[in-house]
Design a protein that fits this description.
Length: 116
């Protein structure tokens, strides 16, 4: 049996931009993507600490060490610049494998969105 588990998490990053007129997605600093083991185009869940919104979108690579967290398209309506969000990626794996799997968890600096 396969189950879905958390495989990646960027915990408490600040939204730096919201671009309603972009096609859609979340742009994430490439360094944060790599640390969290997220791929460009990967489906992610966004949890907004400030307003309780939860929604899904996909990842776009942002400039390395820029601290960029930009919600694009319709997702831009679910956040405000400065909101604190959690970005979660999930994966499917065998039930037994899931018992010992350790997700990639990233805790960036909340002010700069850069890894300490």
């Amino acid at each position: 049996m396969l189950i879905q588990v958390v495989k990646s998490k960027i915990h408490r990053v600040k939204v730096t931009q919201a671009d309603l007129n972009y096609i859609g997605s979340v742009t994430i600093d490439e360094e944060l993507m790599e640390a969290a083991n997220l791929l460009e185009g990967e489906r992610v869940q966004i949890v907004n600490i400030n307003n309780g919104e939860r929604f899904e979108t996909y990842v776009i690579k942002g400039a390395r060490k820029s601290g960029t967290i930009c919600l694009n398209g319709p997702a831009a309506r679910r956040v405000a610049m400065g909101d604190i969000i959690i970005i979660i990626g999930y994966g499917f794996m065998d039930f037994e494998e899931a018992k010992t799997f350790k997700p990639s968890l990233v805790f960036p600096d909340e002010e700069t969105n850069l890894i300490d």
